[in-house]
Every structure is written in C-alpha cells, then in structure tokens.
C-alpha cells in the first residue's frame, strides 16, 4: 500500500482544502504508524508563484518524503463504462493503483469507468461521484476513497450520503464527478446510453 499520496489544488498561489488534506494525511499515518506525531502540511508546501492551476503532490509514509508541483489540466470525461469489482480496496490514497488501473483499461470506448462493488456504485478511477434525482445530489455511502472534496461537500451539505444500488441508476438524471482538482459541477454527465455505458 505504501507510499501514500495527497494531491492538493493550488490556484494562483492559493492552497485549497488544506485542512481536509492534513486531516486525512494524519489519519493515514496514525493507521499505519501508531506512534507518529501529527504534522501540519503547511510546513511542507511552498506554492508556485506562477498563475493558473497547479497540482501539488505529496508523497509520504511516516514522514513526508517528496513534494512536487506541476501545471494541471483537467481530464475531459464525457462517458463512463460500468465495471464490477467486489474485491477492490482503495481505502487509503496510495501511489499503488494497480487495481484501479486494471479496471480503467476495461473502459472500452468510454473516457473512464464507474466502479460497482457488491452491487453498489462507488467511484470512478479518478473521482468521487454524486447522482442527482431532480432535487438532491446523493453520493455513495461507501466510496472506494473518502476524498477531501467529498468531505467538504458533505460538511457544506451540498451532497448527502446514500447507498446507491447499480439497479437504481434509472432513478437519477445526472452524475457529477469531483476530486481535489475537480470542483463542484465542473463535470456533470446526463445518465443515458450515450454517456453511461452499461
């Protein structure tokens, strides 16, 4: 599983969601190294002075090992292919993505996969999701990864947790993808045969 990573959005020098990233970072460290002292990620990040959006990638184990910055371009996703894995485990955000990558190659002509575990929707290979029923955005109660944007949106009551069976997809009109780099309503797809390939 190790090494672990945090991916943080920096836009025009502003660091986004750092408290959520720091919380997850320290929870992960505590789960694997019981005696570790909590660290503040602010001490390790020096935002680029360049304008635009950058991805800050922190690689860590018990301690921070590497911090890198790179310009960010959002991946275009206009279609998803449903794939099933009842054994996949991505509880901790890790550099080891072999299981996710193996599912991603099954996407066929679609841009990404929507992963079903034990009959319930979870995440895509890169993002948490929420589904819209015409009134409320619901996010799967048991995602593969509890993302930092997901935590923020739950705290802001923009989304509601709910188990979403695959067979209930027809009850929703749209699906939204989001992660640390993809903000609210940046990627929304209609749930139909063109955009969601069963």
UniProtKB/TrEMBL annotation:
Keywords (A to Z) from UniProt: Aminotransferase, Transferase
- The residues forming the signal peptide are none
Q: Which InterPro entries match?
A: Aminotrans_IV, Aminotransferase-like, BCAT-like_C, BCAT-like_N
Gene Ontology MF, one = transaminase activity
Q: Name one Pfam family in it.
A: Aminotran_4
- What name goes with this protein? Aminotransferase class IV family protein
Q: Which organism is it from?
A: Bacteroides vicugnae
